[in-house]
Amino acid sequence: MKIVLLGAPGAGKGYISDYLVKEYNFLHISTGNILRQNIKDKTVLGQLANGFMSKGELVPDEVICQMLEQFLKNVKNDKVIFDGFPRTLSQAQKLKQFANIDKVILVEVPNDIIIQRISNRRVCSTCGTIYVNGKHKGDCTKCGGKVILRDDDKTEVICNRLKIFEQQTKPLISYYKDILEVVDNSGSEQNTKIQINKILNF
Ligand code: AMP
Predict the structure, then answer these.
(1) Which residue, 5, 24, 70, 180, has fewest beta-carbon neighbours within 10 Å?
(2) Ligand 1 pocket check: which of 58, 91, 158 to mutate, most ligand atoms within 8 Å of Cβ?
């Protein structure tokens, strides 16, 4: 089964992916994580991507699609979550050539809650673990890495990311209408898990 998670930045795609990985053994493919790893490793791709990411803009379609195509060459898993890809119609058309998508889950949360959640979000700069309540002190409890506020989670950048979601990613809702399911992630974690299990018949 191959799933695409669609949703605004901060809607909880990462949290839902973590749940599906832990409970059901999905492979989590996050284009944002792959790009951040490239930035950390100072690759050519990372340097190129950083210019777009730090402003909250999308990395160009050709760059992202080539990166994903390359990544998928080594993937043998049947159960895959695409988190943060596709983000444009052109990416969705490209994805169709690499993979058969069974379901698209649109993760919905009102924008005011998103802004509040993102400004409280911290992330481990080494392993990517997300800390959601803003009260986390000290290093990452999983790997000891430094826990930071992502550059693109700063308030001025979040507004641009939300605008880009509206303009460039929302058209995917009608593109995928035949296989689209909606999850309301504005309530409790438990409530979200129940909705996910129902959608996936788990
Ligand atoms: P994310 O971690 O998914 O929120 O992604 C962080 C940033 O990486 C985005 O704001 C974009 O700048 C870039 N990015 C991630 N995935 C894509 C994609 N599919 N297309 C273009 N840019 C992307």
Answers:
(1) 70
(2) 58
Q: Point out which residues pair with 119 in neighbouring strands.
A: none
The alpha carbon of 157 and the centre of ligand 1 are apart by a number of angstroms equal to: 13
- The structure's pTM equals 0.90
The helix/strand/coil state of 55 is coil
The whole-angstrom separation of Cα 197 and Cα 147 is 31
pLDDT digits (tens, 9 = 90+) for 25-59: 999 999 999 999 999 999 999 999 999 999 999 99
131 phi/psi in degrees, rounded to 5: -115, 120
99-113 pLDDT, tens digit each: 999 999 999 999 999
pLDDT averages per 10-residue partition of the chain, 202 residues? 96 94 96 94 95 94 95 93 98 95 97 91 88 84 93 88 96 98 96 96 82
Cis ω before 171 (30° cut-off from 0): no
